[in-house]
Amino acid sequence: MLSSSIPYMNNSVKRPELKEKFVEISEGLFKGANLYTTEAQKIGFWDNYLILPVNTKCITQLIQSKSEEGLLDLKHNLRDLFRACLEKLELPDLTHSEKTRQFNAIAMLTVIIRNLFTKKRLTHFNIISILTGLDEADALFSKLVKAIRHHIQEQSTRSDTLQLALVLVAGSDNVNQNGLNGYFMSNDISATLFNVLAEENFTETSNENGHRDIVMLLGMLSNYNKYEYRNPYLSHLKQTKQLKALESIIYMYTTTFTSLRSRYIELNDDEETLSKSVVAYMSRFFYSSGTTAPSEAENSKLLSALPSAQTALLLPLFDLINGNPYFINTLVKMCSKIDSESSTNPGETKTTMLTSLISFASYLFEHNRTDRTNIYSRLLLTILLRLTEENSVMNYIARDESAAMVRLCRQRSPTLPINKLSRSLFCAILDDMLLFIRHNIRKKLDLTSYKLAFSIMHRILSFVSRHKIRLNYHWVELWPSLTSTLHFTAQRLEDLKFKEEFNVFLASFVSVFNMCVTYGETFLSDTKSYDSLYYEIIRATTDFIKLSDYVNQSMNLKARTGERTPSITHNEFYNIKLICNHFKPALDEWQTTKNVKFPTPEQVMSIISENYATLELKPMDKLDLYVAFNEIPAEMGFFRQVLRVVVIDYLEYYATEISPFN
């Protein structure tokens, strides 16, 4: 009988844990072990190592467990690993085994570079020292960029190579401070990226992620220190006329915005039919014990995490719209083509990049509750502003054929009126602005974003007034939202007036009222809309006077101190105060005569109609003029901040959605 005291039979003694070969070799590599002594052994070692599937979790743990000093001490082994991977990437003719090693080399470089950049005390100089040494950095990293360019052109390696490129460019999520991007500047791959976009058919699902990755890579590289010196990627992005590439980009954005919007609808279908609502209500009684319907609080929490990380693609879209007139022309042509096709199929829902962008914007603006969404909201407002400054876009929207039924967010009260008919995209954009100003009133008012929203309104009103286009829009929804914002501004004037951007905000705000008061007859759909505007202005008399007094005081102060001309003057309030002073006495007289203390809105508007003929407004010239958006210098700080946010988001998107290494 065997004794239970024999060690290998004792259950209390644990057997050594079996390790996969990759883990065992990697641990030795990161302990600084001598892995080989001859050149032949060296070649054999790396061939054997890179044929093994890469365990990214293992590499991540090994790097994260080391101090920055410890990693610097491992530079001999890590340099050899970097060179071995680079050699595999440069091989021209591949056997099946070498192809496997090449894929693994790309994966290995991706996980190592990403993890090295997460070490806070490692600068890009330290990382260069670890991977190549300073003496050979230029040669080896230039080779790496050239290898990346080659493999992006290959269908089989494109996806993994794009991930490597994104990780390399992102660095520690601060693109501008990543010195390795200098190698992308001196080895320009922008032509390759646009050629791939032009050659590949985006309508194939397999290519969707690849197109997004290419556009995001272009966006990151084109924003690298773009204010400091000439950036070849930004130049190419602004000047390219590759029709197929631009069409692919527009297709990509159309599907991306639709996808981003769908995440909101999945959590809260704001257009449920009666039958859907009944099914949803009854299903609550039949949920299994393991699957309970999400509560309103849970839904709210999930909504606050939206939009998903693909929203990062707004940055390269801004650069295209802001800098490439050929992109704008292509966008208009593609939208017009879809309009023409949909006219022969009236039953189908028409989706263009513009309609999908406007639709997504409504959901983003209505659920703008975090610093992250606030940055994206401001960026999207800037994009819409630039679109409304493009004559070709505005002329396109003005055409009857461009009218569409755009789904807009109705997930928070007060909701927009339900609309199931095609209408001008001007109306849909105005609704986006209405949603923004309604749902973003808060103690720390974002004056810059509100200024953008009012500027977009002003550009639309200027255009439709100039072209005498009457908009069949629910103006009675807009007026009280404007005066509510006005009241909030007046109430918090003592806090807001010290902010640098307050006067510009106020000028853009008042310009919307002046456009409607002075030129409303050219674009308002009926007299009721005009009467309701005057009604809201009269109700807000106290707020208008308070802000007008502030402007007068501000002007007098600046005149005494010799400061430059203010962005708003008391003249902007002239007609508004004239309206208040004209109708208020008539209203007071009517109340006294009729002995009515609190007249109804209908009674007030009746008095407005009766006294409108005797109102004489002062002509206001150049109301429809505006200063075009200029990124430099005012917006430079904002776009540097945007770059940080989009890089963090897109790398997170990689980690959670499409990374093969997750």
Structural commentary:
- The chain is mostly helical and 662 residues long.
- The protein is built from 31 helices and no strands.
- It is elongated.
- Residues 1-9, 273-291 and 657-662 have low confidence and may be disordered.
Q: Biggest sheet, in brief?
A: none
Identify the overall geometry: elongated
**Secondary structure: number of strands:** 0
Structural class: mainly alpha
Average pLDDT value? 90
Poorly predicted runs are: 1-9, 273-291, 657-662
- First-to-last CA distance: 51 Å
At a glance:
With 662 residues, the chain is mainly alpha-helical. The chain is 66% helix and 0% strand.
Summary keywords:
Armadillo-like helical domain-containing protein, 662 residues, single chain, membrane, disordered C terminus, 31 helices, mainly alpha, elongated
